[in-house]
Amino acid sequence: MHKFGKRALTLILGAAWLGACSPQAASTQQQDVRAEAAMPERHPVSGLEVVPLTIESGEEEHVFAVEVARTFDQQRRGLMERPPLGDNEGMIFPYNPPGVQSFWMKNTPSSLDIIYVGPDERIINIYENTEPLSEESLPSAGPASLVLEIRGGRSAELGIEPGDRVTW
């Protein structure tokens, strides 16, 4: 079963259990289930698969709907020539095997936070508020198995930092 299916089932079962224990908590869980159910399977602009991604930062969990750039061509294109991302949107670039990665902002008209994630699912380093259209190379500080791009400044707004856990 795909991770999205397991997560949705877990949220539904959790919401049912919490309903017997806490009406307020059940309401929050039911809102999460509705939000995930509304997540498109494919992004309307890129056509890429859209999946949920969670960042555990301290006691907080931040959930994003991310496009998955799996192929070389999808990764090369990334978010070039695209409008700004929403607060809870992003794009991921999975790498297997992990390696030192380097991104740039060429042809990307809006600022991004570029987040490098190691094979242990922990954030290695973050480039915040990158300069749009820049050709400056922004490398990972170690081998990365995943790169996440979100709206520029969003990681600081949410308190996301190196060491936080990323799952998808």
CATH homology superfamily name of the largest domain: Protein of unknown function DUF192
**Number of discrete helical segments:** 4
> Largest sheet, described in full?
7 strands, mixed
Biggest sheet: strands side by side, in what order? 6-5-8-3-2-1-9
Find the CATH topology of the largest domain. Answer: Jelly Rolls
- CATH class category label of the largest domain: Mainly Beta
Radius of gyration: 16 Å
Descriptive notes:
By secondary structure, the chain is an alpha+beta fold. The protein has two domains: 1-38; 41-167, Jelly Rolls. It is built from four helices and nine strands. The protein has helices at 3-21, 23-37, 72-77, 154-158; strands spanning 50-57, 60-68, 89-99, 102-103, 112-117, 123-127, 138-139, 144-151, 165-167. The strands form two sheets. Strands 6-5-8-3-2-1-9 form a seven-stranded mixed β-sheet. Strands 4-7 form a two-stranded antiparallel ribbon. Helix 1 (3-21) runs antiparallel to helix 2 (23-37). The longest helix has 19 residues, at 3-21.
